[in-house]
Amino acid sequence: MTSLEISVDRKVYRDPPTVALEALRFSVAEGEFLSVVGPSAAGKSTLLNIIAGLDRDVSGEIRLGPEDRQPNGEDAARIAFVFQSPRLMPWLSVFDNVRLVLTESDEDQERARRLLNAVGLSEFMDAFPSRLSGGMQRRVALARAFAVRPQLLLMDEPFVSLDAPTAWRLRQQLLDLWDELKPTILFVTHDLREALTLSDRVLFLSGRPGRVVLERTVDLPRPRAAQDAGVLALEERLLNDYPQLLSGLTEDEEVAAATDASAAVNDARIPSP
Amino acid sequence: MVEAASRLSDAWLRGLSLLGFFVFWQLAAVLLAQPLLPSPTVVFANLWGHVMEGELLYHLGVTLARVAVSFFIALVIGTAIGILMGRSSRVDGALDGMLVLGLNIPALVTIILCYIWFGLTEAAAVTAVALNKIPTVVVTVREGARAVDPELMEVARIYRIGPLRTLMRVYLPQLYPYLMAAARSGLALIWKIVLVVELLGRSNGVGFQIGTYFQFFDITSILAYTLAFAGVILIIEASAVRPLERHLSRWRP
């Protein structure tokens, strides 16, 4: 469990020269579920790679936890990452894929087994990933992520290209696991309804270079479903107020959004059905 | 079941093609009736004689030991260099010229130079064989190292999997197909070179024996020794290499 302080001054790709992120600042509270929504190429994946320490070529600062700890240092916070594709080791069984990130201790073995049970894969422990459906592979990736008892869980559109019922089952499993272990979650998506259903708070990024153009607290009671009137009303209101929201607001709207910021937060407090 | 059945028919096919080869040989030998081409029955009888005298098994064992040692050395060193060259374009640039040189120096030159510089010793023999094989291992493994999936390596970094475990469970499995290819071609190449090494500077082993029989023009014994060794290689291939390959690729759909 840890808080996260992001302050990216500038992230530049050299070839071709593009500014991916600029003046991107926000923080995430301990145990918070924060979604980041933005158009494609807004630098959302870049942002996660920077936070994870996979990309160090950036000017800015990522601060994890209460103390001034550097990511990936000796005492660094435990980070888990669920990628767009499951990224399982195809030569390891389902069970071994989860055990890969754990120690050999009996306790950890038991933990791997319990997590696979929790995502409904107890009968597929010895199967190789190639025998599993796309949805099942993602469940293994989810179990692997929670196996390390992450303090910070980064998720990069983890449920894309799944059929809707499968995706919602997975989202529910994610929320159950989050409820149990309460890691701080940073969830990147381009699906507004998904973000509103899952998160405590949603950040909207502009197009390239990505920065925060709008922030909205989702004050709806849990558990929520995607079809809840509250979720639908909030989605409708957001899209009404900011038609350009999902393609990254234009400059004018951005200014309006900034002045509207306090009102926007109040707007979010829609009475639950 | 289906898998087992296809494996069985596969074995039949291999057996049949070998049998066909011996039938063809036998016919050719009978028709030509030349002392320079003994028939397989004569060769097998001769082979049996050498086995009973005991000296064939001794020389076979000596040669196999040399093959095993130089195979192991070449694979380990070649894999290490191949990984380094595949990972870093700077190392690749620095060593590529050497690699081309190594690939093109005739085996005979390496062998003679090793014997001259290190004496007619076992170490010189094994070194010469390994030096011949290392460049081809490097080329194959470098290909594999270039094809390593950076996304899977990121998983290892994120989850802070230790270096040894990352090597064994994440990195090397991606190289196995390339290592198997290197091992297979290595086995074939190495035993040929070992025979030359033995012919030139050792006083035992299959190569030494064949050299001796050459001086007596004993073609039947030469063929008997060749058959014995080829048989051993076939057995190693069928009982070790292929099952290992099946095991390592069992996860493929």
Explain briefly what this protein structure is.
By secondary structure, chain A is of the alpha/beta class. Chain A has helices spanning 44-52, 94-99, 106-118, 134-147, 164-181, 192-198, 229-241, 251-259, 261-267, and strands at residues 4-13, 18-28, 33-37, 59-64, 79-82, 152-156, 184-189, 201-205, 212-217. The longest helix of chain A is centred in the middle third of the chain and has 18 residues, at 164-181.
How would you describe what is shown here?
The complex is a heterodimer of chains A (273) and B (253). Chain A has 273 residues and is an alpha/beta fold. Chain A is built from nine helices and nine strands. Chain A has helices at 44-52, 94-99, 106-118, 134-147, 164-181, 192-198, 229-241, 251-259, 261-267; strands spanning 4-13, 18-28, 33-37, 59-64, 79-82, 152-156, 184-189, 201-205, 212-217. Chain A has a six-stranded mixed beta sheet with strand order 5-6-7-3-8-9, with helices on both faces. In chain A, helix 5 links the parallel strand 6 (152-156) and strand 7. The longest helix of chain A is centred in the middle third of the chain and has 18 residues, at 164-181. Mean pLDDT of chain A is 83; it is low at 254-273. Chain B has 253 residues and is mostly helical. In chain B, 87% of the residues lie in helices and 0% in strands. Chain B has helices spanning 2-32, 40-53, 55-87, 89-104, 107-118, 122-146, 150-158, 163-201, 206-215, 219-248. Chain B is globular and about 70 Å long. The interface between A and B is medium-sized, with 22 and 18 residues.
Topology diagram in text:
The complex is a heterodimer of chains A (273) and B (253).
Chain A: E1 4-13, E2 18-28, E3 33-37, H1 44-52, E4 59-64, E5 79-82, H2 94-99, H3 106-118, H4 134-147, E6 152-156, H5 164-181, E7 184-189, H6 192-198, E8 201-205, E9 212-217, H7 229-241, H8 251-259, H9 261-267
Parallel strand pairs in A: 3-7, 3-8, 5-6, 6-7
Antiparallel strand pairs in A: 1-2, 1-4, 8-9
Helix pairs in contact in A: 3-4, 4-5, 6-7, 8-9
Chain B: H1 2-32, H2 40-53, H3 55-87, H4 89-104, H5 107-118, H6 122-146, H7 150-158, H8 163-201, H9 206-215, H10 219-248
Helix pairs in contact in B: 2-10, 3-4, 3-6, 3-8, 4-6, 5-6, 5-8, 6-8, 8-9, 8-10, 9-10
